[in-house]
């Protein structure tokens, strides 16, 4: 993803932030809160996450942490996002939580922190002129994961063509993931335009 494309993503979220307000699901670009929670429900079923360390790319306000804390215990959570407003509020919200760390940086650059499970919800929906961007990010997530990776994408067969948003082919995505992992699981049917991929070590 080049600099112009990254600036477009930042601008998009700045608009969402001004329209919906800080701390809201709308600021993150989600149409409905329920859809985000549905995606979280699928991701959280990757394994028994009790006592696990989790890395969340594109963490926003840390809503996934809240979701996981309600279902599992003793999770060590690290969230990365490059929107300063998101990270600032997340840091304030979880300032007293010793098991929460929020980092403002571009997760597409540099090494990722190691974690048992690496998650990404929504980050692959932004268009990049570099098709290798998505593969490289998936590979970096898999390298950082000790036990597994979970991410979701828009289905190119169900999602209308958009100049800003990006949908992906299920078969080609699964095939690439299988070139990295011998244990790949595909999840469909939870939302009309979505699919989720689990990659296990």
TrEMBL record:
Return the Pfam families for the record: Methyltransf_25
Q: Name one GO biological process term.
A: methylation
This protein's source sits in the domain of life called: Bacteria
Which keywords accompany this UniProt record?
Answer: Methyltransferase, Transferase
Q: What residues does the Methyltransferase domain cover?
A: 54-148
The GO terms describing molecular function are:
methyltransferase activity
Name the UniProt record assigns to this protein? Methyltransferase domain-containing protein
């Amino acid at each position: 993803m080049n600099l112009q494309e990254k600036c477009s993503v930042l601008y998009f979220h700045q608009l969402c932030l001004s329209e919906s307000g800080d701390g809201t699901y709308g600021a993150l670009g989600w149409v409905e809160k329920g859809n985000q929670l549905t995606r979280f429900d699928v991701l959280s079923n990757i394994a028994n996450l009790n006592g696990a360390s989790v890395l969340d790319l594109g963490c926003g306000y840390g809503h996934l942490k809240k979701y996981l804390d309600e279902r599992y215990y003793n999770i060590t959570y690290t969230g990365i996002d490059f929107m300063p407003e998101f990270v600032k509020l997340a840091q304030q919200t979880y300032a007293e939580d010793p098991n929460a760390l929020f980092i403002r940086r571009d997760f597409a650059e540099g090494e990722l922190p190691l974690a048992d499970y690496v998650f990404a919800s929504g980050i692959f929906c932004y268009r990049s002129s570099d098709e290798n961007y998505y593969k490289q990010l998936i590979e970096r997530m898999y390298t950082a994961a000790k036990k597994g990776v979970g991410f979701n994408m828009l289905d190119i067969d169900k999602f209308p063509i958009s100049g800003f948003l990006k949908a992906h082919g299920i078969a080609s995505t699964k095939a690439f993931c299988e070139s990295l992992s011998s244990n790949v699981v595909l999840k469909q049917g939870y939302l009309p335009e979505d699919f989720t991929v689990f990659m296990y070590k």
